[in-house]
Design goal:
The chain is mainly alpha-helical and 79 residues long. Helix content is 58%, strand content 0%. The model has no long low-confidence stretch (mean pLDDT 86).
Amino acid sequence: MRFGRLAHALGYADDQLPGVFLAGARYREGLTQAQLAQATGIPRRHISAMENHKRPIGKQNARKLAEALKVDPKRFWFA
């Protein structure tokens, strides 16, 4: 799926969507960044940077986040 139109409609650039999705999925699960960090082993400051489009998520982190957030890891990538 291409996210260009979706990103534009939401007011985000394509490269910002993974962070937006991460923040939304974390919120949906009722987790704080600290709780997600504990569940995944990813430092809280890295999760914050990923949500704020300052750090790429990467495939390894996407798998960890997807497991903790009960989503497909491909949701953190875009084409």
